[in-house]
Design a protein that fits this description.
Blueprint lengths: L17 H16 L6 E2 L8 E2 L15 E9 L3 H8 L5 H14 L4 E11 L4 H17 L3 E9 L9 E12 L14 E6 L8 H7 L18 H5 L7 H9 L7 E6 L4 H6 L7 E6 L7 H10 L3 H7 L4 E7 L4 H10 L5 E8 L4 E4 L3
Parallel strand pairs: 4-5, 9-12
Antiparallel strand pairs: 1-2, 3-6, 4-6, 7-10, 7-11, 8-10, 9-11
């Protein structure tokens, strides 16, 4: 029991501001509602979000005979540290959504709902709202409903100014249409889709490579207008609309035999996850131009080429493995969807490995 001369201890005295949290709710409510469709039920502020799963074709465009829920969770790693250092908070939320939904569509699934988690030192509603605005924008790009989240104020865990973000996504795929590595066959063609930059992997190495440089400066050999920090914070591309629309064009024939989201581990470390044990993937390194950001990081960080390909996406953010007779038509469809597809290589017999080759 405190004495009359001592001020009573409050939660705010320990670094947790409940009133700031309440103010944040008002700031982000409209952001969340922009991502909602007719399937989201209930009011904002409940203990859990609700999303309707039914098969009423008056409400929904398509039926699922044997629906399978697909779930994944991911964060954006130490890219958040760069965001903190630069005071730019409205892009890493997009990254968080992208890292989840891009993984999900590899299974052939369509994203349905998304939830985010923010761990903070101190609740600054305007800063947190900027982060959540990125999450909401990512969900809008993904046709995904942001139905809830958590903002945990923990000054004992996070240093002042620091935060972390993670997301959780749920989607659905028709069982018969789910992507299975066993479908990949010898002769299949590998198509790559460009990344927007570093995306959200390898930032501990990337930050070390530029540790002696000014993040607020413009380096013309990298970009003539954006600062170094802005280039590195370029949000991860979200491939949902292109991939989902492409899959809808092939509802009978299974012409897409595999896909891969190129994240940590680079092209080789992720493409192999889409292969069976009886095939290999051959990737031709001269098929695409490496973006300037990777050359810049390699030169300033004195990083070996092999390490670059082992850590970064090197300009390819997503890959599809398709039947050879449909490679041209799929490439054309992807171009019409706004993509710039590149024929990366082909599938050969093997044991589940990825090989890089120079030249044809």
């Amino acid at each position: 029991m405190s004495s009359s001369t001592n001020k009573p201890l409050t939660y705010a005295d320990t670094g947790v501001d409940i009133e700031a949290g309440d103010r944040l709710v008002g700031l982000i409510q409209s952001m969340m509602k922009r991502t909602h469709g007719s399937r989201v039920l209930g009011e904002h502020g409940g203990f859990a979000g609700m999303f309707r799963l039914d098969f009423n074709e008056r409400l929904f465009k398509r039926n699922f005979k044997d629906p399978v829920l697909v779930a994944c969770t991911d964060g954006v790693g130490t890219k958040v540290k760069l965001a903190c250092d630069l005071g730019i908070y409205d892009t890493v939320g997009i990254d968080c959504v992208a890292m989840n939904v891009n993984d999900m569509i590899v299974q052939g699934a369509e994203p349905l709902i998304f939830l985010d988690y923010l761990g903070l030192h101190t609740q600054v509603p305007e800063t947190t709202a900027a982060i959540v605005s990125g999450v909401a924008k990512g969900c809008e790009i993904s046709n995904c409903a942001l139905i809830g989240g958590e903002c945990a104020e923990m000054p004992d865990i996070y240093q002042e100014g620091d935060f972390d973000i993670a997301g959780f996504a749920v989607g659905v795929v028709e069982l018969d249409r789910a992507i299975d590595p066993s479908r990949v066959e010898t002769g299949d063609i590998i198509i790559g889709l460009p990344s927007s930059g570093v995306h959200s992997n390898g930032f501990t190495l990337a930050r070390a490579a530029v540790s002696g440089l000014d993040l607020h400066a413009v380096y013309p050999e990298l970009d003539k207008e954006k600062t170094l920090g802005e280039v590195l914070l370029e949000p991860t591309r979200i491939y949902v609309k292109s991939i989902v629309k492409l899959l809808h064009k092939y509802t009978v024939k299974k012409v897409i035999s595999g896909m891969a989201h190129i994240t940590g581990g680079g092209i080789a470390g992720n493409l192999c996850r889409s292969l069976g044990n009886d095939v290999d993937a051959t990737v031709h390194l001269d098929r695409w131009e490496i973006p300037n950001v990777f050359t810049f990081l390699q030169e300033h960080g004195n990083i070996e080429t092999e390490e670059m390909y082992r850590v970064f996406n090197m300009g390819i953010g997503y890959a599809l493995i398709v039947r050879p007779s449909f490679a041209d038509s799929i490439t054309t469809k992807l171009e019409k969807l706004g993509e710039s597809p590149v024929i990366l290589g082909e599938i050969t017999s093997g044991s589940g490995n990825v090989h890089f080759v120079s030249g044809e």
